TrEMBL record:
Residue sites binding Mn(2+) per the record: D150, E152, E221
HAMAP family found in the cross-reference section: DXP_reductoisom
Highest rank taxon of the organism: Bacteria
Name recorded for this polypeptide: 1-deoxy-D-xylulose 5-phosphate reductoisomerase
Single GO MF descriptor: isomerase activity
Length: 389
């Protein structure tokens, strides 16, 4: 019996994780479930998983959480505050930690799990983008194991698994992108929040759905791949593949390409990571090739979607550029969702703000958090005086 903690248990990835775990009650038990503010959904997650502990990030909601757990007649212990989430990420009782918090809010817990030597099933790509080399070194130094939940990286992980050290040295990564909802839309100036929060193939949280529409998600994934697989950015390509059947590919020295295919359902990659090295049945219908009417590929359009190019640029610049780009994007997306800026302003703001990143690479978790915080303040200030011209 392995004990699992789910950080971000009320989100899209968290919910899919619970779904897979509930198929294997003999293999897994749940130590902790966490969320930021949705008390009722967190208490429901505690009930579904019979979790020992439930943590709500917003400390003011402790009493409400306690009541919600009582109302469900659960013995689950209530905890509150961001520090309590980070403590759960490192708790000795959990062998596996699922990192499914959205945004840079997941950085501290990812580092805590790494330092505690956990098997870390990481969906929170932002912590790899911001933690970069420092995070990978921390994982190594503490004997932790990172298994990528992000479907593209999970695909790359599977395609690289049988490669020898020598084969790995010359590999190229080809990340697939759906192209998002605006792949064919020429005028992006009128995009509404409603349109940007609906993805053609995947059902996901709001932030990542907007990121998919701007192609920032693919940009963050390029940065994520750079660190997860130690692949320099000039050996990472992106190809638009609207059907989202091929989840990503690896090309070797001889030109041969290995691809991983599957239905676009995150339960597949979650099950892969939970069971690794065994394979578990996620309850997802396997692909039916007779109903697939072709796999197509296109070059990404970085004129309409410059965020992808900014990600490569941030990697080339180094220092705190990736932390900056990630934070600026988070704040810009937040403002877009609140109706304060237009969809086309998101890349414009990233382009300008990226230039103010420090050229010194972070040396500690504190440096990472400080750079993230500073970038958020600067961006919010910039947006307050922003006219869109
Ligand atoms: P979501 O918005 O559906 O859920 C986010 C979760 O994080 C919630 O449980 C929420 O309570 C928690 N959270 C939010 N802010 C927090 C804070 N400040 N402190 C603590 N907890 C906080 O997001 P999601 O779509 O499940 O995505 C989660 C992560 O997984 C993201 O990094 C995303 O990029 C990545 N990811 C998601 C998918 C997907 O299909 N949804 C696919 C690949 C990668
Ligand atoms: Mg992905």
């Amino acid at each position: 019996m392995k004990k699992v903690s789910i950080l971000g248990a009320t989100g899209s990835i968290g919910t899919s994780t619970i779904d897979v775990l509930n198929r294997y009650p003999e293999k897994f038990a749940v130590r902790a479930v966490t969320a930021y503010s949705n008390v009722q959904k967190l208490a429901d997650a505690a009930k579904k998983t019979n979790a020992e502990v439930a943590v709500i990030g917003d400390a003011k909601l402790f009493g409400e959480l306690q009541e919600a757990l009582n109302a469900r007649q659960l013995k689950t212990i209530a905890k509150a505050g961001e520090k309590a989430i980070v403590e759960e990420a490192a708790d000795p009782d959990a062998e596996i930690v699922v990192g499914a918090i959205v945004g840079a809010a997941g950085i501290a817990s990812t580092f805590a799990s790494a330092k505690a030597g956990k098997r870390l099933l990481l969906a929170n790509k932002e912590s790899v983008v911001c933690g970069g080399r420092l995070l990978m070194d921390t994982i190594k130094a503490h004997g932790a194991q990172l298994l990528p939940v992000d479907s593209e990286h999970n695909a790359v992980f599977q395609c690289l698994e049988s490669a020898s050290e020598k084969m790995r040295q010359s590999h190229r990564i080809i990340l697939t992108a759906s192209g998002g909802p605006f792949r064919k839309r020429m005028d992006l100036s009128t995009v509404t929040v409603e349109e940007a929060t609906h993805h053609p193939n995947w059902s996901m949280g709001k932030k990542i759905t907007v990121d998919s529409a701007t192609l920032m998600n693919k940009g963050l994934e390029v940065i994520e791949a750079r660190w997860l697989f130690d692949t320099p950015e000039d050996r990472i390509d992106v190809v638009v593949h609207p059907q989202s059947i091929i989840h990503s590919m690896v090309q070797y020295e001889d030109g041969v390409v290995l691809a991983q295919l599957g239905a676009p359902d995150m339960r597949n990659t979650i099950a892969y990571c939970l069971g690794y090295p065994e394979r578990l049945n996620a309850g997802v219908k396997p692909l039916d090739f007779s109903s697939i009417h072709g796999l197509t590929f296109e070059k990404p359009d970085t004129k309409r979607f410059p965020q992808l190019a900014y990600a490569y640029e941030a990697l080339r610049r180094g220092g705190c550029s990736c932390i900056m780009l990630n934070a600026v994007n988070e704040i810009a997306v937040e403002n877009f969702l609140k109706g304060k800026i237009r969809f086309i302003d998101i890349p414009k703001i990233c382009e300008v703000m990226m230039l103010s990143a420090s050229e010194h690479a972070p040396k500690s978790l504190e440096d990472v958090l400080e750079a993230d915080k500073e970038a958020r303040i600067l961006t919010q200030e910039y947006i307050s005086g922003y006219t869109g011209e």
